[in-house]
Amino acid sequence: MFPDAALDRFAARIRALPERRRALTWRLIRIGLALMAGAGTALAHPPFGVLIGLLGYPLLMILAERSDTVRGAFWMGWLAGFTYFFIGCWWVAEAFFVNPEQAWMAPFAASLLPAGIGLFWGTACALYRRLAPVGVVRVLLFAALFCAAEWLRGHVLTGFPWNPAGATWRAGGGMSQFASVVGVYGLSLVTLAATAALAPLVGPGAARSRLISAGLGVLALVSAGVFGAVRLAQADLQFTDTLVRLVQADVKQETKWSPEAYRSIVDRYVALTGQPGARVPDVVVWPEGALPASANEVFASTDAMAIAGALRPGQTLLMGLARGEADLTAPGGGRYYNSLFALADEGGPGLRIAAVYDKHRLVPFGEYLPLGSVMTAIGLRSLVHMPSDFTAGPTPAPIQIPGAPPVQVLICYESLYPGFTPGAAGRPDWIVNASNDAWFGATSGPRQHLNLASYRAIETGLPIARATPTGISAMIDPWGRIVDGQRLDPGVMGVIDAPLPRPTGVTPYGRLGDWPFLAALLAAGLAGLWPLILRTRLRPNRSVI
């Protein structure tokens, strides 16, 4: 085939070079290709959407299987992973520029995070090279090992499930709908297997089997796309009587904690909350950490009365605030939680706390320091404006609030994790994602976060009301689409009054979770290993007497 002939001619030119120069040239070419693989797959994700970058997966598979050693395959995977996560997560460094005294940590955050997470990709490629599968079914083993590494990345320690391969497809589109069946990890397996199926086109083997492999890969993507198109065509978007107001006050993180900013921030939220509309909202949602003060300080001040004055009788305010609890055994004499308060206006002089949700999954280094005593000794500290790190709340569960159906709260980072929301028993009717993406400024981070959070709507069949201080705020329907195209982009101050969509029926993923994905992962791995298993079983038994 033409690719083989072209590659053979290119390889012949390299082999004609002197030995040292030849070795260096091959090494540089492989490094360059690994960087291309990582960059391509990263740029395929929203907001970039360069889908041809998905060819980085078959390229990485080729690099791994053509490495001379297992160690070489590991470094190919690690380089690709480092590049992927550097492009996908570079905005993490932006958070360290908010406070000038922490700016020195920005280069370390931008480099050490992708370097650490890249180990998962390196390990997957090393295992693939170590097993050295044969035949076109080796594509399935590559996809299985890679997806297993991605699943572990989202679960080991606190996990960091940012931009799995399945989230390449923009939420709300046809391809993304397959996540309602197998979740974003199952969609990752389909994406990886289908794209990696192109790898056998370059290399040895019967032309017929290589073309069949590529054809099956294309068929898998087309089938998933058709499923999604049919699901969207049959989507019957209906609304409840509950009207939700999402408040975005455009509060920049770099000025939020300056003493002179406090009064204007409170006034801004109060004004937006009480802003007249076509109809009085039943629920008003403020973002995570809306005010630069703890709940203890806000509720003890006259600001509580100002907030109560902005609400109408019967309204409920969901407000993100840090809160403290006295605890003489804790550092600083207290524990601090990143919380969302449900405050009910019952027509009296103040507000009643109807429910409180404490964030369960905290951001390492952002909200707490792993190995705190060690990290503090070398000059590191978390980014929270509290006397000590945040404490994790209990396992997430839906809460009941006045004037609205039961709701599952996901604070910021928690929206990255599939499976947080009950899918069947105890299922809520909607999700509130209160987030603070102001840390990441005008980068790709807030747009990627919106895409990832929208996958939770597809997986669960539940609408999501998403409120942030600087964008992107939106009401997301159960198919992952933004309702009526209403969104508040970065830098915009305003409100969205949106009727709450009705949930769909329980999705297959909501009922079964990751079990179908894990079963498919095992099946793909065994299928990819089957030629090796047969070869081992058929090998003659040689015994020495």
Automatic annotation (TrEMBL):
An individual GO BP term: lipoprotein biosynthetic process
Membrane topology: Multi-pass membrane protein
Molecular function per GO: N-acyltransferase activity
Membrane-crossing residue ranges in chain numbering: 48-64, 73-93, 105-128, 135-152, 178-199, 211-230, 515-534
Subcellular location: Cell membrane
Metabolic or biological pathway: Protein modification; lipoprotein biosynthesis (N-acyl transfer)
Keyword Membrane: yes
One matching Pfam family: LNT_N
Main localization, broad class: membrane
Domain CN hydrolase positions: 247-502
Single GO cellular component term: plasma membrane
Domain of life: Bacteria
Enzyme Commission (EC) number: 2.3.1.269
Keywords, comma-separated and alphabetical: Acyltransferase, Cell membrane, Lipoprotein, Membrane, Transferase, Transmembrane, Transmembrane helix
InterPro entries in alphabetical order: Apolipo_AcylTrfase, C-N_Hydrolase, C-N_Hydrolase_sf, LNT_N
Gene3D superfamilies per record: Carbon-nitrogen hydrolase
Role description: Catalyzes the phospholipid dependent N-acylation of the N-terminal cysteine of apolipoprotein, the last step in lipoprotein maturation.
Protein family per UniProt: Belongs to the CN hydrolase family. Apolipoprotein N-acyltransferase subfamily.
Protein name in the entry: Apolipoprotein N-acyltransferase
Source species taxonomy: Bacteria, Pseudomonadati, Pseudomonadota, Alphaproteobacteria, Caulobacterales
